[in-house]
Amino acid sequence: MNSQPTELEGTWEEIIAHAAELAGRRVRVIVLPEKPKPSPPEAVPPFRPPSGRSLLRHAGTWAGEDFEECLQLVYDTRSEIEF
pTM of the entire structure? Predict the structure, then answer.
């Protein structure tokens, strides 16, 4: 006699196909929850390179007296980048 239990997994129709070999044997049936249907992948918008259009709505709207100072700070603190 086989000391290791036989494990079968599948739908009821797939399990019942083994009825002849399981006849007269003790069996345990565990009904598993249904697999959730896979949700369709979220639509990913196609990549569009930035156009700068969103920045244009701010063009000419600088309010303040420190523009030159801020611009100079940008020039003074920027550094080269390596790729």
Answer: 0.37
